[in-house]
Specification:
The complex is a heterodimer of chains A (about 300) and B (about 290).
Chain A: H1 3-38, H2 40-44, H3 47-50, E1 55-56, E2 61-62, H4 65-96, H5 99-114, H6 117-136, H7 144-168, H8 172-180, H9 185-196, H10 198-214, H11 217-222, H12 243-250, H13 259-297
Helix pairs in contact in A: 1-13, 4-7, 4-10, 5-7, 6-7, 7-10, 8-9, 10-13, 12-13
Chain B: H1 2-42, H2 48-52, E1 55-56, E2 61-62, H3 65-96, H4 101-115, H5 118-132, H6 139-163, H7 167-175, H8 180-209, H9 212-215, H10 237-246, H11 253-284
Antiparallel strand pairs in B: 1-2
Classes of the chains: A mainly alpha (about 300), B mainly alpha (about 290).
Amino acid sequence: MDKSLNWRETVITAVIRTCGYSAIVFVILIFFFLLREGVPALAEVKLGDLLTTRWYPIENHFGILPLLTGSLIVTVGAMLIAIPFGIGTAVFLSEIAPRWMREILKPLVELLGGLPSVVLGFLGILVLSPFLRVFLDLPTGLTALAGALLLGGIAVPTTVSIAEDALDAVPQSYREGALALGATKWQTIWRVTLPAARSGVLTALMLGIGRTIGETMAVMMVTGNAPVLAVKLTSIFSPVRTMTATIAAEMGEVANGSTHYHVLFFIGLVLFLISLAVNIAASSVVFKSKKRAERVLS
Amino acid sequence: MKRRFAPDRFLVQRLGISLITLVAVLTVVPIIGVFGYIIAKGAPAISWEFLTAMPRDGMRAGGILPAIVGTFYLTLGTAVFSVPLGIAAAIYLAEYAKENWLTRLIRIAIINLAGIPSVVYGLFGLGLFVLFLKFGTSILSASLTLSIMTLPVIISAAEEALRAVPQSFRTVSVSLGGTRWQTIRKIVLPQALPGIITGIILGLERAAGETAPILFTGAAFFLPRLPNSPLDATMALPYHLFVISTQVPEMPIQIQYGTALVLIIFVLGMNLIATVIRSRARAKRQW
């Protein structure tokens, strides 16, 4: 073999190896820039002031608690929708629906996942929130509830798709064994198939939550953008504002390097750390279940 | 005793299955409703002028050409950066990487990249590309930001496609004297190509529909001309829909629905192409 071939091989291997590491580099870069622009906020605003309930940047009130509770209430509301509807639909597609119906419906549900969130937000403004205002007799339909409903719609496709894969991966012999022992189809689903797919279903929910917390446009368009503390149960019927919406709405108008600018980056840092925690938790579930599957097989 | 309980569990079964079916119907019907509604409301707005003219009258009349062209440029720019990098990273993971802590770290990093909120990508793009590297609010900054966001989708899909190529193909190539790279380039990559292309399109589809990452990195509120360099800011379909549905008073509703429909066609059209490529490749595959 000639030398030039060897030389080329070495260069290409080096390039590919470098690209392989790029994902790590980007995560570190993102973290670094959020720290660089966000941490000065802690020097300019006291931590005690950040943890207050008043967000009014024009007068230098940077309390992020209303934004945290806003994100929380919308996310919890979305999960209350995504858990029953996401898992229910996944069970229906995998265990009850005939094969041809699944081949049609699953891509359809996934199509909703590909819909840009700004389109959902647009329909939220024009259709959903007027409906909520009339139906529930509220002063405005732009509420946490509207946000939760839209986010539920965004989380459902992710949840259905991954949970259905997990249910589908449960060996047919499990179901046959349960049925042979005299269990009904329902008992088989509830006591055998779902528990066997538990870790995959859990991952589906985690990734659904992940999408929900990070969602920006749809939430900004329908939640009414009022940074008030949302701690009462009735807060779901009033306007709120999430962390993501605050960044998106205000970053365009702040001066680079101002306190407001640093605080918005600080909120970004908080979001980054939350998504890091959710994703590491979700992936550790995946790794664990893989190990268990390997043990069973060996 | 047994006989008395037997009907009960069948009753439970009937109730349970009805309930699950109802849940599925309640999930699927609104999805069909969403698509049907936008198509029905948006279709009357679509005309040759709407697709090819500049906006007039503070965006309340005329067409949305700059937004369509802008989204096209951003998608193209995203592809320029994310496709080579994504494929190379996938080749590394599928063909070179050993199962060790470093590879696990790469996988965790990819999962995390996929989960970072899109608005945080926007912040990062603002910090690194717009301000630190001084690319300004431009197509370049926005494309770079979107490419990093798209990267995990492309890497995962391409790696899966590469791993699906049977090991025997590689063994034969190497036994005939091919080097590792020759094997990858001439044997493995061509076989995995349809899967890789599908992954690329699905990644770019997400990039085309995103608003938050381009908000502060490249999107222009109103720019009634076509961008003529990568350092220009640009209008884009998703941001334009956001602007005309929340920021412009007395906006004709038809233009809003028309814009939403064009955006959906752009994004779902890409989805359709990916699906066709995938099913064709599956039908042709001989292994």
